[in-house]
Structure formats: structure tokens, C-alpha cells
Amino acid sequence: MSEFLLDFEKPVVELEKKILSLKVSAEHSKIDFSSEIAELEEKKEKLKKEIYGSLTSWQKVMLARHPSRPYTLDYVKIICENFVELHGDRAFGDDPALVCGLATIDNKPVVVIGHQKGRTIQENIDRNFGMAHPEGYRKALRLMKMAEKFNRPIITFIDTAGAYPGIAAEERGQAEAIARNLREMSYLEVPVVSIIIGEGGSGGAIGIGVANKVAMLENAYYSVISPEGCAAILFRDASKSKEATEALKITAKDLFKNGVIDEIIKEPVGGAHVDAVETAMNIKRFINKSLTSLSKMSKQELADDRYDKFRKMGVFEEETIKNKKAKSKKSNTKSRRK
């Protein structure tokens, strides 16, 4: 269990401490506490299933932000072989908030792109807390074009609160860089697979997320805006983040139901940080399954599939100008009668 604890994790930790205390006592006093330990272990597992099986949307957001949660490079080390990181956008500089490189997965060559946060304060400053600048998205696009040239599938790991909104980023064309990525990813002639592994915030997430197959880890979230930002705008009160989270429908379960993602990837009970290897293997199975199905498509079919996927999202209504005028006239007539 991580040193960092969320409120709902504390009852489980208390039981773990009791179990550890009994084990130490048994070792020193030579008294058999095996039955008591077994009973507490059973109680702990039952409690974990109860807690993590009924998490609220806000609690899942907290897990998605857990500081011990595995990041892109953690998964790359487990899933990939021969990873070689490439740097720079060939225009301004390198952005450590987005890591890009060449790798193989079960001897299949791929290009890997993903947001990267830091573990320490200094690492987070260096990587800008996983919030990419324009050069990060341009670097990602450079690697995507390289993948297309050499016919390599693209795997992206999404984990960001959003693209960096600072003045310098805006001066260097943040909005244009993300918009260009959206357009260019739509036309890519190679398979693209995206996994939201933690936070999936706004344009910063979708900037590397226009994919044929999109999956989310069980306790990740994916949203057009952060819960705090939504609360500040809608409720004029950032403290109402919990209510905003429920209204936004940003959990994996909600997004799968609404057709935004293709699959929910299971996490160990307690979250991805409890067992990074198990989580990584679950991700790897999804990647291999997706690449197997996508490899049967032609280049044009891959682009068409991506286009159709995103066109189907959401609900909208169309009406002609003629119908609109008729409705307006009818409404005005009713108003005059009143």
C-alpha cells in the first residue's frame, strides 16, 4: 500500500496494520495467531471489494490522480521491448511532458507516445506536471508521421490534466498545434490505439487521442474539462467538484455506455498502483487484440474507421432554414395571441 492515502483507503490500511502487528507478535512470542490472521485477511479482502466495487465518480477521479499510480514510462518498461526515446519537434525544442519513441511489443514494431508526470517535485516541474506545450504535440505529430512512413502502429498513453494554458504556450500556438494533431491523426494510414491511464483532460488528452481503438483503465477519467473547472463555471464554486463529476459522466463506465470508448481495462482491487505489472499486462492484452483486428484493414479503411468512430459520438439534431423560419413564425403568432 502506498504511503499516500485517500480517505476511503484508510479502513483497509488499518486492517493491514493489525495483520502486520499480529504477525510480528507471533514471530516474537512464538504464539500461534494464524486463525486470527486468516480471519483479518478475509475481512480485509471483503472490505476492499466493498469499497472499490462501489466507488463514486469523485473517488475514481482521486484514484486517477493518485501520486503512486503508474505513468507512461512505467507501462512502457513492462509492456515494450527495445524502447528508444526520440526528442524535439524540429521547430522550437523538446517537451518532457510528452514522451515519444520507437519500441517493439512482442517483437512487433510500434511508435509509443504518452504524457509523463513526475514522482518528485523537481520531476514534476521538469515535466510540467504532464501538461504538454505546443512543441510536445508537434513532437508527437512528427513521430506519428514517421510511424506512417515506416508503417508502424501508434500506441498512445493519455494522462494529463490538460494542455498547458500558460502565456508562453499560447504564444507558440497551443491551440493550433492541438487542432493540427486532430486533423492529421484523422488521416493517418496506420492503426492508432489509445489508452487513458489516469487523467484524460480536455484538448490536452484528445491531442494524441484520435484513435481507431480507445480504452480506459477502470479508475481513469476522460473529460472536456476538469471537475474543478466545471464547478467553477457552472456553480460559481470550485468546491462543488463532486457534483460536477457526477454531472459530467466522465468515468470509464459512463463513457463506455455512451460509446465514447471501446473497452474498460480492469485494474487490481485497490487501483493500478497496487500492482503495476498486472495492470500493464491487461493493457498489453488490449493493445495486441486491437492491433490484430486493425491489421486486417486497408490504409483507407483505417482512416474511414477513425472518421466514422468520432462522427457517431454525441446526439445532434438537424433542421433546414425553411423549417426554422416556420417554427419562428408559429412561435411569434402564439406570442401575439397571448
In which range does the helix fraction lie? 40-55%
Mean pLDDT: 89
Q: Which CATH architecture of the largest domain is right?
A: Alpha-Beta Complex
Point out poorly predicted stretches.
Answer: none
**Strand count:** 8
CA radius of gyration is 24 Å
CATH first level of the largest domain: which class? Alpha Beta
Return the string of H and E elements. Answer: HHHHEEEHHEHHEHEEHHHEHHH
Q: Count structural domains.
A: 2
Which class of secondary structure composition applies to the elements?
Answer: alpha/beta
How far the N terminus sits from the C terminus, by CA atoms, comes to 68 Å
**Major sheet description:** 8 strands, mixed
Give the name of the CATH superfamily of the largest domain.
Answer: 2-enoyl-CoA Hydratase, Chain A, domain 1
Strand content: 5-15%
Q: What is the global morphology?
A: globular
Provide the CATH topology of the largest domain: 2-enoyl-CoA Hydratase, Chain A, domain 1
What is the count of helical runs?
Answer: 15
